[in-house]
Design a protein that fits this description.
The structure holds 3 protein chains of 3 kinds.
Chain A lengths: L5 H45 L12 H14 L1 H30 L3 H16 L2 H12 L4 H24 L3 H9 L4 H39 L4 H10 L3 H38 L1
Helix pairs in contact in A: 2-10, 3-6, 3-8, 4-6, 5-6, 5-8, 6-8, 8-9, 8-10, 9-10
Chain B lengths: L10 H10 L1 H26 L10 H12 L9 H32 L1 H16 L2 H12 L4 H24 L3 H9 L4 H39 L4 H10 L3 H30 L17 H4 L5
Helix pairs in contact in B: 3-11, 4-5, 4-7, 4-9, 5-7, 6-7, 6-9, 7-9, 9-10, 9-11, 10-11
Chain C lengths: L2 E11 L6 E12 L3 E5 L6 H8 L7 E8 L2 E2 L2 E4 L11 H7 L6 H13 L15 H14 L4 E5 L7 H18 L2 E6 L2 H7 L2 E6 L3 E7 L11 H22 L1
Parallel strand pairs in C: 3-8, 3-9, 6-7, 7-8
Antiparallel strand pairs in C: 1-2, 1-4, 4-5, 9-10
Helix pairs in contact in C: 2-4, 3-4, 6-7
The chains are: A mainly alpha, B mainly alpha, C alpha/beta.
Chain lengths: ~280, ~300, ~250
Amino acid sequence: MSTAVAPTTSPPRRASQAELARKAQRRDRIKAWGWRLAGYLFFLSLWEFSSGRLMDETLLPGPTAVFATFGELWQSGKVPGAFATTLTRIGIGFLLAFVVGVLVGMLMQNRWLSGFFKDAVTIGVTTPGLIWALITAIIFGNREAGPLLAIVLTTFAVITVNVSEGIKSLPKDLIDMAKSFGVGVLKRNRHIVIPHLAPFIFTGVRFGFSIAWKVTVLTEVFSSSSGIGFEMRTATQLFRLPEFLTWILAFYILALFLEKVVLEAIERRFFGWRTTLKA
Amino acid sequence: MTSTSPISPTRAPSLTRALKSPLSGRLTFPLVCLGVWLLTIQAVTTIWPFAVDVLPTPWQVAGFMWDEITGNTLAPQNMYETFWISLQRLGAGMAIAMVVGGVIGLAMGLSKSVNAFFNDWIVAILAMPNLAWALFCSLAFGFGDTGPIVAVVLTGVPFVVINVREGVRNAPTDLYDMARAFGVPRERAIRHVLIPSLMPFLFAAGRYAFALGWKGLVVAEVFGGQDGAGWTIKFWYDAHRAYGVIGYALLFVIFALFFEKFLFDRLSRRFFRWRPSANATAEDPAPTDQQRTPQHG
Amino acid sequence: MADIKVENLHKEFGAGADRVVALNDVNLEIGGHVFVSVVGASGCGKSTLLNILSGIETPTNGSVTITQAGHPARAGYVFQAARLLPWRTVMDNLLFVQTDRSEETRRRCQHYLDMVQLGDKAKKYPGELSGGMQQRVGIARAFSTEPDVLFMDEPFSHLDAITARSLRTELHQMWQETGKTVVFVTHDVSEAVELSNRILVFAKGGHLTEDIPMNLPFPRDSSDPDVALAKAEVFRIFEKIGALAVR
């Protein structure tokens, strides 16, 4: 073979090779999706199969039964009301928790206050939401303040931890740079401190939300006369498992959607630069 | 310390510094809590005289806790018995979760197909509130040991899976190559390379599974137990004894802190002596976002 | 001392557009008490050659035989990073690659630790040692198996200049005292000229293009004009090949 022919023959061959590689990649992706679908099929059919065969159908209603029940509940008109009640509670409680969490995190810059709040944060992170739900339920009965307080107590610590982590890692060199150029406090905060803290706070929000919605439903089980938790309690007391599963699954899917899709998309959109830093 | 300095004028600044130290802040916190508590009772009882039973005083709670600690209780079982029952369930559930999660995590770390098969379901189980597991298990398995144990397994498995998968993905291939270059036999490479490299991940998995399994267990016992720590706090709740609920809650906090701070920190320091800075903080390896999410409810 | 015979060695990675030829029809014989350096730019197959010689990777085509007086030879390996087990002490790291754990083996390991001046660090964990010390443990580990041939993959490239220099001298003394065959991969031409009796130059695409004997007496001082001349010569060859590789 002479070297002169090589340049003319190699580009098309390389192109076809690139195509081959792309095809291989596509095949890999299709394979992964195939396995993923297989996973869905497997677990859903396992669930459907177990219902009525491995376990009593009243104890473990299958996915089709749950789906049918959701249709019934939707037609009874209870669904939007219960969802709205619970979501409002989550919204208000979470807002309060957010304010408290950020405030405490900011205050913890001070050494004395950091010691002061240290155990509060530890207790907030380690105590099960159930405990707060029970305590607030027994003290406040079915007044609105109970669930809100429970949400604040379980959620604020996660936000505080993230905020204080962000404060600890403030870019001191940038702040010093700004100081040396005579940039004022307000401007420094606006251009350095807040952009630095925002992703930390957002992570706190994401984690906090995942905790908040669970606690909210839990407190409703004990001490509310409306909302998803209340409907769940009623369903279990009447031993209506399909109804119970429908309530919890419907709300779970909504919360998962908010948590994994909405919040994560927002995070990716605004704080995408941070992941490249982390890697 | 500056306070040992013989020159007296330095004493005053060192005293103010001691007052400003984080430790004094830490000591102030319980005092402030107590103060707020007492003031609240004062305020509520003046505005609203019939609320006396609802808001217990700190002394009531302390008395209750003392009775519990000395084993003198009105509940069917004293705290040692109830916590022991719960601990056994937790242990059984964790053992199952570690085995099941270990196998699935290993397979998911090794094969992309297996990972695709399980991944979404692991995420789904992870995000499920333990309330759902608890209510479901209590309905499906009735009252007894099975329900709470299954609840622990279901809460623990995703954490074990995620950690083990992470461990397999971070496998030290350079060390395997080293072992092969020196012709080290396979079983020795497994013992000295694979297992020690997975240990930190397994340990982290155990730690998370313990903390979250405990929360899951308590909820499961509240709804589907006939004994155990969770059931007992429900007992005081149903008996409308607020001081019992708060006192028992404090016992929970003490119990969790004991395991976290003493047992696991001690164990971690022992296991991971080889880590350069292990003695200082004993951090768990590379916690991913999902692992760091504490689960309540 | 071992005899290494490499015949028609060929190695490829990947397929399609990602296909890379790491070694292209390499033929080679190395034998006796020699210090052979393998030099070349990064990505020319140096490390692949070493990995195939030591059995970490298998060739696509061709064969490698390493013998010691007719028997399969034993090999030791020093890596670019020390590759110590972080969870085992220095002594246990040496024992990990031994065939037995007898008292005699322990004594031998201790002997080589003494030789790299880490005799008192046997009970430390790798994390407690500096980078240079870790690399010395790696060298002691390679020697402690009493190998017939030693493979080294840029063992000093992660170290600072002063540490690398003193380790180079140490290594060279150990080579002269123990009389092993050494195959030493490096991208540093000066290092290769100062240490070896023979330099193999690889070009891009995995071709073994030059085989240069180095017959200057040891120890070689970098200020020696003969050494400087030899370096210049090798650099010249290197540049020529570099130009070839671009085309």
